[in-house]
TrEMBL record, chains A, B:
Keyword DNA-binding: yes
UniProt superkingdom: Bacteria
SUPFAM superfamilies the UniProt entry points to: cAMP-binding domain-like (SSF51206), Winged helix' DNA-binding domain (SSF46785)
GO annotations of cellular component type: cytosol
Residues annotated as domain HTH crp-type: 161-234
Pfam families found in the cross-reference section: cNMP_binding (PF00027), HTH_Crp_2 (PF13545)
Keyword Transcription assigned: yes
PROSITE patterns (UniProt xref): CNMP_BINDING_3 (PS50042), HTH_CRP_2 (PS51063)
Protein name: Transcriptional regulator FNR
Species for this entry: Wenzhouxiangella sediminis
UniProt keyword annotations, A-Z: DNA-binding, Transcription, Transcription regulation
Example of a GO MF term: DNA-binding transcription factor activity
Length: 253, 253
DNA sequence: CGTCTCTTTGAATGGTATCAAACCCGGTGG
DNA sequence: CCACCGGGTTTGATACCATTCAAAGAGACG
């Protein structure tokens, strides 16, 4: 069945990648028009994914690859001991489900942090396209390598930096990603709670809270619950870039 | 030029993947015989890579993909501030150079920790094969996904566990990898120095040293410089598996 | 308006970094 | 053969940052 061409269109509800406002962020821009057309035919555009709904669980066999169109998503893994390890946050344009690429089963889980819309590509359709297009394979390799680089960055942040630096980097990273999506980089709302931030950064809730308060006290940011305003971007960057040598050494160099 | 068919062969110096003692560990087992034959034609078998020689540097454009045949290699990245971040250690059978897959440039550096032998596949040959074999693409995706999983594991280890658990996990991981290669899992030599271990685990040299001493005092292992013997594997596993709740909580669950 | 959850703040504990010095070992030269 | 290095490693004392335990405060929602 072709994407429904009747019924009411909601705001921002496109039916073709070519019209999509996210096109410049989406991997669809990297494949050739023929393949994109074919993609269009198999994409399921889904909306109304509500807060705390799971896109997939770890261990589950992959049903689709998805691109986030609006909202935000938390990726996490569950350790043998049953506790959560937050591995990242997805924003519009990000691809969700690459973790199932090797085994066909998702390595981790993904859950909506707020109301979300998605473009879903069924795996069998996608695998068929992969088998025929080396170009698409390359794009996927690139995406995986990027996730890898991200994981490595996180490794550095979580394992080796003090709390203040971790939080500064988190805020700046988020700010930069929002900016690339055409949103205000200095005034935004955190869709995840303190627990998720703490877990992601390898800290406790209390430390995250204290650090945010301290940054506010120092006039670097303004925080009010989930709302954040970056007041002194330069100062924040300096904290993040470790320009001062106020961090643990941990056998570097 | 074909791989030299005259000259003296050194011990363990094969000229075909089919004869290679590492075959069961190598990704070459996962491709079909035709492709493997073709691989054989382009592989450069290199030896005499001596300690502290670099295979590649971060930022360098990739010249070849390599499989380690003997020895061991340290992978690391250099941060903007110039200090080192050890991301892993390669053992025989491991593929080196996947980090250049997306951009064509190596994300990190790789340096020999001792005398090494390698199988090198020139990138242009390899890319040609990639363009023609979806199967090979899949194998590469799987390898990348495995590196990814490894990076995630490390993230958990480095960011969230206490020193004792980190060291225990490090020793067990190494032990398991050696065992899979047919070596003694309980008696081995660390090819990396304390600095590298500390950096890899996100600790200081002193803490690593102290922790090893403590494990010895508790009768779990025996250490003498770079030589390690696992005395009580069960105890070590219990430390690593967090069976006791003696670790920071850090917003889990 | 009351309840529940999330968040913030406070005080005390503890693990790891830091600073400093001793130790061990292989290599070198007297 | 031994004294003397120099690097890597071990050990000790102290300081500090983040966790932990505890409780108050703020928001969301019925």
């Amino acid at each position: 069945m072709p994407p429904n061409s009747e019924g009411t269109d909601l705001a921002g509800q496109e039916h073709s990648c070519n019209d999509c406002v996210l096109f410049s962020l989406c991997f669809a821009q990297d494949i050739n028009p023929d393949e994109r057309e074919r993609l269009n035919g198999v994409i399921r555009r889904r909306q109304g994914v509500h807060r705390s709904a799971h896109l997939h669980h770890g261990g589950q066999s992959a049903r689709q690859l998805a691109v986030l169109r609006s909202g935000s998503i938390k990726a996490y893994q569950v350790s043998r001991e049953g506790d959560e390890l937050v591995t990242g946050f997805y924003l519009p344009g990000d691809v969700i489900g690459l973790d199932a690429f090797s085994t066909g089963e998702h390595a981790g889980s993904a859950v909506a942090l707020e109301e979300c819309r998605l473009c879903e590509i069924p795996v069998n359709d996608f695998n068929k396209m992969l088998g025929e297009s080396p170009r698409l394979n390359q794009v996927m390799l690139r995406l995986l390598a990027e996730e890898m680089a991200e994981a490595r960055r996180l490794l550095l942040v979580v394992g080796r930096l003090d709390a203040r630096t971790r939080v500064a980097l988190f805020l700046l990273s988020l700010s930069r990603r929002l900016e690339r999506r055409g949103l205000d980089p200095d005034l935004f709302r955190l869709s995840m709670d303190r627990r998720d931030i703490a877990n992601y950064l390898g800290l406790t809730i209390e430390t995250v809270s204290r650090t945010l308060s301290a940054l506010q006290r120092d006039g670097v940011i303004h925080v009010r619950g989930k709302n954040v305003r970056i007041v002194d971007r330069r100062a924040l960057s300096e904290l993040a870039h470790l320009d001062e040598s106020s961090r643990p050494q941990r056998a570097a160099g």
